[in-house]
Amino acid sequence: TIVVVMTWAASNIVHGRIGRMWMAVRDMDIAAELMGIRLLPTKLLAFAVSSFYCGVAGAMMVFLWYGGAEPAVFNINQSFTILFMIIIGGLGSLLGSFLGAALIYILPIVLRFVPEWMGLHVHAATVEHITFMTVGALIIFFLIAEPAGLARLWQIGKQKLRVWPFPY
Predict the structure, then answer these.
(1) Angle at Cα 95 formed by Cα 40 and Cα 23, nearest 5°?
(2) Which residues are within 8 A (CB) of 107 and not within 5 positions of it... i.e. 6 or more apart?
(3) What dihedral do alpha carbons 58, 61, 63, 65 form, nearest 10°?
(4) Residue 66: what pLDDT?
(5) Is residue 111 within 8 Å of 101, Cβ to Cβ?
(6) How far is CA 112 from the centre of its chain?
(7) Could you list the pLDDT tens digit for every one of the 168 residues in the chain?
(8) How far is Cα of residue 122 from the mean position of the Cα atoms in its chain?
(9) What's the half-sphere exposure (Cβ side, CA atoms, 13 Å) at 2?
(10) C-alpha to C-alpha distance for 156 and 95, rounded to whole angstroms
């Protein structure tokens, strides 16, 4: 429920006046300032909203996922995992955040059970190494070939399916 409400609120913020100001400042802050957008309050608001979302996400992760706050929970590997979810999903996209998180979470599960369905026995350490290599390759691919991530690939796929029989 919390994730749905926070996503709905973020979608409304991004598609409203505040979101347009953030996008203008992100794209070219000098032009945004010339159009009448005050940079300092806009950047401070973006920082405050993003900090609020990070705080809620951290609190949910600690108390709903791990069950308690321990220093070992927030290690550098956890930070990189969250960063990789955003990079693979697509920077600046709500849908991309969910797609990247789903891919990073489901990838080790798929790599563990698909070989067993084919009759191959794969050790857990091998699955972990293959996961690291696959995630690294995906990050390089998305940073070079498609910086908008899985969200952009999803948009392209939807658009191609929408005009499928007659692409011209």
Answers:
(1) 25
(2) 131, 134, 135
(3) -170
(4) 83
(5) no
(6) 23
(7) 999 999 999 999 999 999 999 999 999 999 999 999 999 999 999 999 999 999 999 899 888 888 888 887 788 888 899 899 999 998 888 999 999 999 999 999 998 898 888 888 888 899 899 999 999 999 999 899 988 899 999 999 999 888 888 776
(8) 29
(9) 9
(10) 14
Residues 6+ apart with CB under 8 A from 11: 94
Q: Is the alpha carbon torsion for 44, 45, 50, 55 positive or negative?
A: positive
**Residue 62, amino acid:** V
Give the 3-state DSSP-derived string for the chain, with helices as H, strands as E and coil as C.
CHHHHHHHHHHHHHCCHHHHHHHHHHHCHHHHHHCCCCHHHHHHHHHHHHHHHHHHHHHHHHHHHHCCCCCCCCCHHHHHHHHHHHHHHCCCCHHHHHHHHHHHHHHHHHHHHHHHHCCCCCCHHHHHHHHHHHHHHHHHHHHHCCCCHHHHHHHHHHHHHHCCCCCC
Tell me how far apart the alpha carbons of residues 116 and 47 are, in angstroms, rounded to a whole number: 46
